[in-house]
Amino acid sequence: MTRCCVFAHFDQDDKVDEYVLYYLSQLLENVDNLQFVTTSKLSQSDLDRLKTLGVNVIQRDNVGYDFFSYKTGLEALTMDYDEVVLCNDSVYGPFFNLSDLFRKMANVECDFWGVTESYEIAHHLQSYFLVFRQSVIDAPSFWEFWRTMEILSDRRQVIQSYEIGLSQKLLSRGFSSACVIQTANQSFGRRIMRSLPQFYRRFRLRWKEGVLYRHLLEVLLRRKKLEINTTHLEWKTTLATRNTPFLKIELLRDNPMQVAEVDQALGLISSISNYPTALISNHLERVK
After folding, report:
1. 20 contacts 285 by C-beta, under 8 angstroms
2. pTM above 0.90, yes or no
3. CA–CA separation, 288 and 284 (whole Å)
4. How far apart are alpha carbons 41 and 89 in whole angstroms?
């Protein structure tokens, strides 16, 4: 079986960070071709390091977010593959061997799969790690999605039109999806109870920012649902049980939902994995 990967990269300081190089090295053990699409202006030394690793580097303008990098990388492919992986640099890891993940999902009958899913707005696989099988790769509707993609400047619009839109388009065409961590398996009551403290904290923060009234109107008028973000709310459980090899950078850098015990993440990773956690602390020190 042949497998290729399109990796979307951006760095605020125009660098290829060490955690990214580690991630790429682990991917290269599991793919036959890796297209590294970056919107950063990389130094020659970084370009040389990528070349030494054995990746194909594509540099493009910083527009369109990761999905336009995915589009660029896919359109640069010159041969057919049995599987296509789309992933980006928004996570730390992998903390476990990616071959175990691919082996596990090889036994799951589906047309495309991801690590985590979301039901916000509509059901979709989260786009930081997606795998498409031959049935999808051969489908005209898959390539039509990328061919007709436009450059969007609003992140929320990109999520709605492309992250959610891709899953919805494929599902509407009869393709089946699967997920390593299935949100639907959590009982409704447990999900709500886990979300309430985060929901309260977010309201409290908005009170301090002086926008609580506007947010209340948003909830009432739009019937906004509680956001169940597995990559944030369930990070500790999914990591401790080895269900996910990744941890979202946003969780450790910003913790926007004020999730508890995030400061324990590096210790937990060290206790269950050989991953060099200095890669995480060094990166956070630079970007925080």
Report:
1. no
2. no
3. 5
4. 16
